[in-house]
Amino acid sequence: MADLKAQIIQQLNLQEVKPEDIGNDQPLFKEGLGLDSIDALELIVLLQQHHGIRIANPEDGPNIFYSVRTMAEYITAEKSKTA
Amino acid sequence: MSNANAYITSSCIIRNNTVVKNGAVVLEETGTALPEFLRSLYDRFSGQYPKFHKMDLLSKLGWAATEVLLQDMPMDQYKPEDTGVVLANTSSSLDTDERYYETVHEIASPALFVYTLPNIVIGEISIRHKLKGENAFFITEAFDIEFITGYVQQLLDTGAINACICGWVEQYHTAYDAALYLIEKNSRGMATPFTAESIRKLYL
């Protein structure tokens, strides 16, 4: 998950945030890391660019991007389908 | 053109890695490129505003210039609708437009796309300082001081606004030039009568 945190920081240009500042279960949006709707789009781009994953159902977005852990679990699950 | 019923109460000029506020140099940094210089400006005059790092260079330049402009010039006597923002430049958002176009060949960047309009810098300034007054962004060949002065004076005269952040925010590749002025009906700060001549004198 440390690598994923680093990817999020780079993709979203969070220059004043360090990977250790992001809790595994901390909400990424609203009261958590404070990301916005444009950041959500950038996270979708991150999944495509770094992991080759396209989200088939946009309604799954809130659950996938709830926290670093939910993102990591989604990436692992999607990669296991193609393995 | 003489308009003694309003005042330039603060000014900020940023060019050649130098920041001049009210005619005095407040930051000078040689040998750094624009992104690093703007980061220094941010560290020196603001900080603790993570959205800054996501802005394009045009927005960073205008936003940082406003931080300097409004330093020690509280605006809390005005309602949000009382303060306007009127800016101009010659390159529009072309620098970011080009960078965005480069991303389109693979995966278009949403973060770049939102800065492919020059008036986004007005939005960033307005969000930061909670401004909801009249605003406009003009594209002109050069800083048309008479035009900007006349436009702002009309907004003040008609009562649309009581204060205005106005000026020039230009950036394309490594070239940049920012000149912002705080115009108010009430005198304070540098209290220079708001005229095209005064604006020009501070700009040069």
Notes on the protein architecture:
The complex is a heterodimer of chains A (83) and B (204). By secondary structure, chain A is mainly α. Chain A is built from four helices and no strands. Chain A has helices at 2-11, 37-51, 61-64, 68-82. The model of chain A has no long low-confidence stretch (mean pLDDT 92). Chain B is α+β, with helices and mostly antiparallel strands. Chain B has a single domain, classed as Thiolase/Chalcone synthase (Peroxisomal Thiolase, Chain A, domain 1, 3-Layer(aba) Sandwich). Chain B has helices spanning 34-45, 57-69, 94-104, 110-113, 120-129, 145-157, 196-203; strands at residues 7-15, 18-21, 24-28, 83-89, 135-139, 163-172, 175-184, 192-193. In chain B, strands 1, 2, 3, 4, 5, 6, 7 and 8 form an eight-stranded mixed beta sheet that branches. The two termini of chain B are 18 Å apart. The mean pLDDT of chain B is 95. Chain A binds chain B through residues 12-17, 34, 38-39, 41-42, 45, 48-49, and chain B through 50, 53-54, 106-107, 109-111, 114.
